[in-house]
């Protein structure tokens, strides 16, 4: 058997915090405090935990946007350093799907231009002559009508924008997708469509996915394994099935209990934002 695709060992990240007093020394926020994680080939690992628990900081380390004080991150055994020091092939292999495509997609560019831009940075992925075909293919892969290629993000729905964001990542033929709260801003029904798309893409494109969310309810639909984070540390890691049926840690039980209560009253955060509107 081959080893994990992504291997995180002893990850520690501290940020300067607020000063205790006007002339006092700065405090330190230990955002990530000794995290170990593995993601296998074609595996979806959900990293869950409340806001501020350090999930995005882990993601930013994997993407090479934050430099950890301690620890190692390897991709197929090769160290994943800061993004500007990564070989092109590793830059391409690890792609990000953003939380809020509304602000991460350039409002002045069309869908086609947004996707083609990825190939300017990594031209070898889609040779010039093949790009029309490659564009049509990637739009089809994410379930976007070819007729939308000339639209700008403002002329798309939230769900369609998230599909563009996924298409942009997919255009680079990644091996690992990092999705940080990628469905958190969407209505429940649209959330579910995007989750289904990610599950399909994971199979058809042999992807590994690091799926980050504060919302345990969305994890059921997508995760093979779940790791629960709290104040910079992992408290539990288990198969999704095991975690949902027999959570071992009191904190996980508490998170699950909270998710159940919200489902029971129909008052999940997304539902209150107005579901059922389609994309
Ligand atoms: N760039 C930064 N500078 C200072 N503190 C930060 C920075 N990024 C994150 N933090 C702090 O680190 C902790 C973890 O944040 P984050 O990783 O964003 O958590 P999550 O994604 O789980 O909500 C929080 O206390 C946050 O305020
Ligand atoms: Mg976050």
Automatic annotation (TrEMBL):
Pfam families listed in its UniProt record: ABC_tran
Highest taxon in the source lineage: Bacteria
Any one Gene Ontology molecular-function term assigned to this protein's record: ATP binding
InterPro entries: AAA+_ATPase, ABC_transp_ATP-bind, ABC_transporter-like_ATP-bd, ABC_transporter-like_CS, P-loop_NTPase
CDD domains: ABC_NikE_OppD_transporters
Transmembrane segments: none
Key word Nucleotide-binding present: yes
Domain ABC transporter: 8-256
Keywords: ATP-binding, Nucleotide-binding, Transport
Keyword Transport: yes
One GO biological process term: transmembrane transport
Protein family per UniProt: Belongs to the ABC transporter superfamily.
Name of the protein described by the UniProt record: Peptide/nickel transport system ATP-binding protein
Organism: Jiangella alkaliphila
Organism lineage: Bacteria, Bacillati, Actinomycetota, Actinomycetes, Jiangellales
């Amino acid at each position: 058997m081959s080893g994990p695709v992504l291997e995180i060992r002893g990850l520690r990240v501290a940020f300067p915090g607020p000063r205790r007093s006007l002339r006092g020394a700065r405090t330190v926020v230990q955002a990530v405090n000794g995290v170990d994680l593995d993601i296998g080939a074609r595996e979806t690992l959900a990293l869950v935990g409340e806001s501020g628990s350090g999930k995005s900081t882990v993601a930013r380390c994997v993407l090479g946007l934050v430099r950890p004080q301690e620890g190692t991150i390897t991709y197929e055994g090769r160290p994943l350093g800061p993004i500007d020091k990564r070989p092109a092939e590793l830059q391409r292999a690890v792609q990000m799907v953003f939380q809020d495509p509304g602000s991460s997609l350039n409002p002045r560019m069309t869908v086609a231009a947004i996707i083609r831009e990825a190939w300017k940075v990594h031209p070898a992925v889609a040779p010039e002559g093949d790009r029309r075909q490659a564009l049509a293919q990637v739009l089809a892969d994410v379930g976007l009508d070819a007729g939308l290629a000339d639209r700008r993000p403002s002329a798309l729905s939230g769900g369609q924008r998230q599909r563009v964001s996924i298409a942009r990542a997919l255009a680079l033929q990644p091996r690992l997708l990092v999705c940080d709260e990628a469905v958190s801003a969407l209505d429940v029904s649209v959330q579910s469509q995007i989750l289904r798309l990610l599950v399909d893409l994971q199979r058809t494109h042999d992807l590994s996915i690091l799926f980050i969310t504060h919302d345990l309810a969305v994890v059921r639909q997508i995760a093979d394994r779940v790791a629960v984070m709290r104040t910079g540390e992992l408290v539990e890691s288990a198969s999704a099935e095991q975690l949902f049926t027999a959570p071992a840690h009191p904190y996980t039980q508490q998170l699950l209990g909270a998710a159940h209560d919200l489902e029971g009253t129909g008052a999940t955060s997304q539902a209150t934002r107005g579901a059922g509107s389609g994309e």
